[in-house]
Amino acid sequence: MNVPSEEILHKVNQWLAHADEYLRLAAYALKMRGKGRPFRLIAYHAQQCAEKCLKAFLVYHNVDFPYTHSIRRLLKLCETYGAWTQALRDAEELSLYAITARYPGEDEPVTKEQAQKAVEASQQVRKQVRTVLGQCGMNLSEEPAE
User: Fold this and answer.
1) Is 16 helix (H, G, I), strand (E, B) or coil?
2) Which long-range contacts does 143-146 make (Cβ < 8 Å, 24+ apart)?
3) With the CA atoms of 32, 37, 41 and 45 taken in that order, what torsion angle do they form, in degrees rounded to the nearest 10?
4) What does pTM read for this prediction?
5) Which fold has domain 6-135?
């Protein structure tokens, strides 16, 4: 395998940084108290984290991915590089939150439990992608995105 250029590594780190921001916000919002907690937005931000992580992996491998929010489609593209994607099939459910959580009339209520599950799924995607990128030779900190 060819070693990615510094430019590619920089882009991968940018994608991962964006993913971490989405996850930090989702995790923080889960800790909010009182009525009106935005569970649909928490789920949306969790989906965005997973999406950005998978796209970071594809950038590392110089894969020209389509404009999509489909976790299933991104996992399919990633599976060319290993069976690790099979462990993330539950994360495909996050795709539901990419659009429906953002637009009035398309939104379905999201429960606290669903939001928590979405955050946990995005944390799994983040951990797996960072592990695989580390195995590919990227030097990534293990600092959790909290």
Assistant:
1) helix
2) 145/19, 145/20, 145/23, 145/24, 145/27, 145/49, 146/24, 146/27
3) 10
4) 0.91
5) Four Helix Bundle (Hemerythrin (Met), subunit A) (1.20.120)
How is residue 67 annotated by DSSP?
Answer: S
**53 vs 126: CA distance, rounded Å:** 6
What residue type is assigned to position 88 of the chain? L
Domain ranges within the chain, ordered by starting residue: 6-135
Instruction: Answer yes or no: are the C-beta atoms of 6 and 139 closer than 8 Å.
Output: no
Angle between helices 39-60 and 71-78 (to 10 degrees): 20
- Count CA atoms closer than 13 A to 81's CA, side-chain side: 19
Kindly state the tokens that stand for 1. 């395998």
pLDDT single digits (tens) 87-132: 999 999 999 998 776 667 666 789 999 999 999 999 999 999 999 9
Nearest to 137 by CA among 60, 83, 62, 80: 60
